[in-house]
TrEMBL record:
NCBIfam families: ackA. This is Acetate kinase. Mg(2+). Can also accept Mn(2+). The active site is at residue 149. It comes from Thermovenabulum gondwanense. It catalyses: acetate + ATP = acetyl phosphate + ADP. Its cofactor is Mg(2+); Mn(2+).
Length: 398
């Protein structure tokens, strides 16, 4: 029985799922929170059992992985008898640069490339690397696979990924559009093709991964040809706390007028902007929707800005692909907010996009919400990046 452990390491967190790949069922999943901080704990959910919360001192990712493995083999709430039952480990890695157009078995050469990419993803790649190094130390004989957020977007054509800056900056430093959330966009585009009963090689999709971080992709005949995120995950539509597209001079203006230093501007644009900055209420869309319904004008404006920008990308990507067969909503907001889906899709009938409001009144369920006479289908497909990582891992170790 092939059992695959999927790990997603953040700077102070570690998410995991253990899959039985015979039927792709989740045996256990969980989250280690506040790594290196006070109040660190493990939240462990074995399949068919009660969730367990364990407080412990977890100073680093190595200890976090040990705590996770102890939970997986625990007599009461564990799901395996021995960690030797784990056949392979799949790691989510944010940035693979231009070196990886698919998932790879992790070896020393791969690790060197991941370290080279730190300057492209300084917030994300270091914790990904910590997780890989910790697993290698604790489970030295278990094969590991890296699945990259950027890999799916390596099919974006050169004219779409080059920015209007001196070409030498691309040659010297890799300044180009990379695109992110690739594992999610790949999963939902494959599921959308299955749902529609059509070969993915024959359809044109716009996939909207809408969450605290949001990105939109044009997927033509199964390949990514555009993504709204760019050199970093800061580009695109305004997000929970990220600014999205702004005039490049605005950060300089903010630094000058607000006294925000060079060392702080990145943090400012990533953590104080987006719908949080517009609404002044929250980065959580549930709070923003509630505030808007209660008459908060800035909360209403934040929703309007977010959905308007998403609408613009759908139109642009339909033009870029010379056609559109379906729009796919996924991610925490895309799957659960009927209001956001409605606002994005309204007044798009010229493109053949019309939704049925009754069908749209659904949360987190794979469904077609298109109106009967719509030429373009509108789908909700809950994403499953962890399963995609597990599948890639099994394919490579075999």
């Amino acid at each position: 029985m092939v059992k695959v452990l999927v790990i997603n390491c953040g700077s102070s967190s570690l998410k995991y799922q253990l899959f039985n790949m015979e039927d792709e069922s989740v045996m256990a999943k969980g989250l280690v929170e506040r790594i290196g901080l006070e109040g660190s704990m493990l939240k462990h959910q074995p399949a068919g059992k009660d969730k367990v919360e364990i407080s412990a001192e977890i100073p680093n990712h190595k200890v976090a992985i040990k705590v996770m493995l102890e939970a997986l083999v625990h007599k009461e709430y564990g799901v395996i008898e021995d960690i030797k039952e784990i056949s392979a480990v799949g790691h989510r890695v944010v940035h693979g640069g231009e070196k990886f157009s698919g998932s790879v078995i992790i070896d020393d050469k791969v690790m060197d490339v991941l370290k080279e990419c730190i300057n492209l993803a300084p917030l994300h790649n270091p914790p990904n690397i910590y997780g890989i190094e910790a697993v290698k130390e604790i489970l030295p004989d278990v094969p590991m696979v890296g699945v990259f957020d950027t890999a799916f977007h390596q099919t974006i054509p050169e004219y779409a990924y080059i920015y209007g800056v001196p070409y030498e900056l691309y040659q010297k430093y890799g300044v180009r559009r990379y695109g992110f959330h690739g594992t999610s966009h790949r999963y939902v585009s494959l599921r959308a093709a299955q749902f529609l009963g059509k070969p993915i090689e024959n359809i044109k999709l716009v996939t909207l991964h809408l969450g605290n971080g949001s990105s939109i992709s044009a997927v033509k005949y199964g390949k990514s040809v555009e993504n709204s995120m760019g050199f970093t995950p800061l580009e695109g539509i305004p997000m929970g706390t990220r600014c999205g597209n702004v005039d490049p001079y605005i950060p300089v203006f903010i630094m000058e007028k607000e006294g925000v230093g060079l060392d702080k501007i990145n943090d400012y644009l990533n953590k104080k902007c987006g719908v949080l900055g517009i609404s002044g209420v929250s980065s959580d869309f549930r709070d923003i929707e509630q505030a808007a319904q209660e008459g908060n004008k800035r909360a209403k404006l934040a929703l309007e800005v977010f959905t308007y920008q998403a609408k613009k990308y759908i139109g642009a990507y339909a033009a870029a692909m010379n056609g559109l067969d379906a729009v796919v909503f996924t991610g925490g907001i895309g799957e659960n907010s009927s209001l956001v889906r409605k606002m994005v899709c309204e007044n798009m009938d010229f493109l053949g996009i019309k939704i049925d409001e009754n069908k749209n009144n659904v949360r987190g369920k794979e469904t077609d919400i298109s109106a009967e006479d719509a030429r373009v289908r509108v789908l909700i497909i809950p994403t499953n990046e962890e399963l995609m990582i597990a599948r890639d891992t099994v394919a490579l170790i075999k």
